[in-house]
Every structure is written in structure tokens, then in C-alpha cells.
Amino acid sequence: MQLILGLALAVLVFVLLRQWQQASPEQRQRGVFYGLVASAAMASLVLVVTGRIHVVAGVLLALLPWVRRSLMLRRLWQLLSGKSSTQGDNTRPDTASHQRMTVAEAQELLGVSPQATRADIVMAHRRLMQKVHPDRGGDNAMAARVNEAKALLLGK
């Protein structure tokens, strides 16, 4: 059985090396990534089967504070060196593409008439926020637009 597995592994390595020679640089880079992912998955599977995964989990959890600290230090270094990191910052809305809402748009969004009272606007806002609130599976941008519409119509 071991001889068959050894021969199969040797053939697999031979085929992979042959494909590696014929691959373009992009395919090689992708191959390295998938190879690392597959190796990590196989190593994890072996650790689970042998009952030693708790050691790896403990090491990874022990490294988490150091990773967070290194990310904070990296951000601090970028700030101090004058390099700004605009990639991955999705917390602020894009002010260039964000335009002010008109009163007609706000009324249409909330579904109220131009003669709507303060109570009508508040009730329409509450009803709509129950549908689009992020805590209920809604969208942050839509909830912000609904809040903006309410503030505009109430004159805040």
C-alpha cells in the first residue's frame, strides 16, 4: 500500500513540475497561492484527525494581540511618514459623489405629501427605518439617506 501511495505521489509531483515549466508568470503566482492554501488545509485536516488542532488554535489566539498591535503601528507609521492610506477605508461616505437631497426627493423617499405634518414625517421615518435598518439586514447607505430625508423635512 505504501509503495502505491509513493508511486502516485511521485507521478503527481512529476506532472505538477511539468505544468509549472509551461505556465505563465500569472499562472505560477496563482499556483503558489492555491498550493499554499491547499497545504494549509491539508495540514489542518491532519491536525484535526490526530487531535492536535488545539495547539495550533492556542498559538494563533496568542498571536492575535501582536497582529493587532502591528497593524496599529503600521497605520501610525503611515501617518507619521506622510503616507495616507485611502484603500480599505469604507467607513466614510464618498463626499465627491454624495449630493445634497432635495425636499421633493426626501418627500418621495419617505412617502409623504408636501402637506405632511411633523408627526406624519416621524411616523413615515420610523416605518421605513424598520425595513432598512442595518441591524435588521438593511443597508447602511439607505438608512443614512432615510435619516437625511427626515432631518431635511423637519428642518434640522
Give a quick rundown of the structure:
The protein is 73% helix and 0% strand.
Topology, element by element:
Blueprint: H1 2-22, H2 25-50, H3 53-81, H4 103-110, H5 118-132, H6 140-154
Helix pairs in contact: 4-6, 5-6
Question: Which labels suit this protein?
Answer:
156 residues, 2 domains, mainly alpha, Helix Hairpins, 6 helices
Secondary structure: helix percent = over 70%
Q: How large is the share of residues in beta strands?
A: under 5%
The end-to-end span amounts to: 78 Å
Number of strands: 0
Helix/strand structural class: mainly alpha
Radius of gyration: 28 Å
Mean pLDDT: 83
Describe the global form: elongated
Could you describe the largest sheet, including whether it forms a barrel?
Answer: none
**Structural domain tally:** 2
Segments where pLDDT lies below 50 for 5+ residues? 85-97
In DSSP terms (H or I, runs of 4 or more residues), the helix count works out at 6
Order of helices and strands: HHHHHH
Description:
α4 (103-110) crosses α6 (140-154) and α5 (118-132) packs antiparallel against α6. Residues 85-97 have low confidence and may be disordered. The radius of gyration is 28 Å and the shape is elongated. The chain is an all-alpha fold. It folds into 2 domains: 2-81, no CATH class; 103-154, Helix Hairpins (Orthogonal Bundle), CATH 1.10.287.110. The protein is built from 6 helices and no strands.
